[in-house]
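Long-time lurker, first post. I've been practising inverse folding by hand and with some scripts of my own, and I keep getting stuck on stretches where the structure tokens seem ambiguous. Below is the full token string for one chain I'm working on. Before anyone asks, I'm not after the true native sequence, just a reasonable design that respects the backbone. If someone could post their per-position residues I'd love to compare against what I wrote down in my notebook.
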């Protein structure tokens, strides 16, 4: 767990995770909005989250293994949640219009400064017109962001072909038909079928 308290500490820690050109901007945001920032282990179900703290200091947690651009997007996403929480006394929808507006406002300086590589920049411009609950909910953005991950031998399920075999969470599957945003996948060992998200990171078996 990492709790950052001053500008020097913010720079020292976040320099490991953020694009260099975004560092000063993000540090300034965190100085303005005193949340408890926690860099955490990888979580397969989410990249980050915001918790109001229930009377204690609000907390933002971000997965440590995100690439710099994914880390930046996720952190601004969660700061937007914090700002909605602080501004509105009554509860708002987690990813409603108030959050979308906050997120756009926070991301605009990064787009204006062209922090992202050209291809990713253009995708982000489109994404921010109607931001999703997660970057993983946008297949185009998720695929573009994966190009900047440290290679680990995985690929997106959506990039496989029908009848390809792959490993996911320690089990071997055969890829079947697509059902909207998920694929019907047949687990070889148990002969059971499962729906798996198209953006799941899997190991293809050749």
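-- Answer (accepted) --
I ran through it position by position. Result:
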């Amino acid at each position: 767990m990492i709790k950052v308290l001053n500008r020097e500490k913010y720079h020292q820690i976040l320099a490991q995770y953020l694009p260099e050109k975004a560092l000063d901007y993000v540090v300034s945001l965190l100085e303005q909005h005193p949340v408890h920032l926690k860099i955490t282990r990888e979580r397969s179900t989410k990249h980050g989250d915001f918790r109001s703290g229930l009377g204690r200091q609000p907390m933002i947690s971000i997965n440590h293994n995100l690439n710099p651009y994914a880390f930046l997007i996720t952190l601004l996403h969660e700061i937007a949640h914090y700002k909605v929480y602080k501004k509105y006394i009554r509860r708002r929808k987690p990813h409603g219009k108030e959050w979308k507006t906050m997120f756009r406002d926070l991301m605009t300086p990064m787009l204006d400064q062209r922090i992202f590589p050209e291809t990713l920049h253009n995708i982000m411009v489109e994404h921010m017109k109607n931001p999703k609950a997660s970057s993983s909910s946008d297949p185009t953005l998720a695929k573009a962001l994966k190009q900047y991950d440290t290679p680990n031998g995985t690929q997106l399920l959506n990039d496989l072909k029908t009848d390809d075999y792959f490993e996911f969470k320690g089990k071997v599957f055969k890829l079947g038909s697509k059902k909207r945003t998920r694929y019907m996948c047949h687990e070889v060992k148990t002969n059971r079928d499962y729906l798996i998200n198209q953006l799941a990171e899997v190991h293809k078996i050749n």
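A couple of notes from the structure itself: The two ends are 39 Å apart (CA to CA). The chain has a mean pLDDT of 91. Happy to go over any region you disagree with.
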